[in-house]
Sequence to fold (322 residues):
Amino acid sequence: MGKRKKKTNKKYIAIASTILFVIVLICIGAGVSNIDEAANAVAETASAITNSIASSWKVQDEDENKPAKSADGTLEMHTIDVGQGDSILFIQGNSTLLIDTGTKAKGKIVVEYLKKLGIKKIDILIGTHPHDDHMGGMAEVIKNFEVGVLYTPDYKEDDITTTWYMEFLNAIDEKNVKWKYPNLGENLKIGEADVKFLAPNSEKYTNKNNYSIATKISYGETDILLTGDAEELAENEILEAGYNIEAEIFKAGHHGSDSSNSEEFINKVKPKYVVISCKYGNTYGHPKEKVMEFFEKKDISVYRTDEVGSIVMTTNRKGYFI
Fold:
């Protein structure tokens, strides 16, 4: 369960048909009757045609010294494969937003990913909630990039003494990062895209997941909703607050857990696409079968990092490219 339906690519069918047709003509023209000779002819011809196609489709490496910039008039969403965790990058024009950084162990992967894109500054950095799989790599990211402003929830407990959190606090002090808490309904800008905070809606929770900062990013006619690990309690608070949460793209809550992604909440979001960030074979069983069955029932296309690796979605204000 949970795998999206694959659509046949007509271009590939046409190419395959051409290859077979050419091979048949070569064999007939050469008068090949021996099976071994025919096999060799097929292999040599297929190899030549395949190499020619591959050469024409080759993608040139990006210039690592070139600053990051989205294509003119587009917003890019990069769901970086950090295993069992979250790290989502947005680029609009020359502006960047990074939501979460994966675990402490995956921080270097996030840094390498951003550097390959030519990113030198993160205009807005958001840590959704104080769990290692979302904020563990924060120190590594802060050490390597200029940060415009950092947002985290106003978590009032003083019992976070883990190594990654101490390193995070030290990195903030060393780089003198501007650190703020989100104001609900506050509107920020990343280039020409709007960023709005929708949660957390209470000051104190017994479950750290519910402190998750939820954001809605709007660009033209395209809306993207991200809720961190917010569980059903926090989802209900978002609904009760009366926010417009309809979004074409939804980053599944809590890696596709059934303690999040309630049917009532998803019915309000009405997504066309869902992105799930999780590790292949994770011990939590994410995403849960119940959730995947509901997405399938609603005919929602699902993309998962445990199946395809990092996922890049691009919108030109109207359409989507994945």
Remarks:
- Residues 35-57 form the longest helix (23 residues).
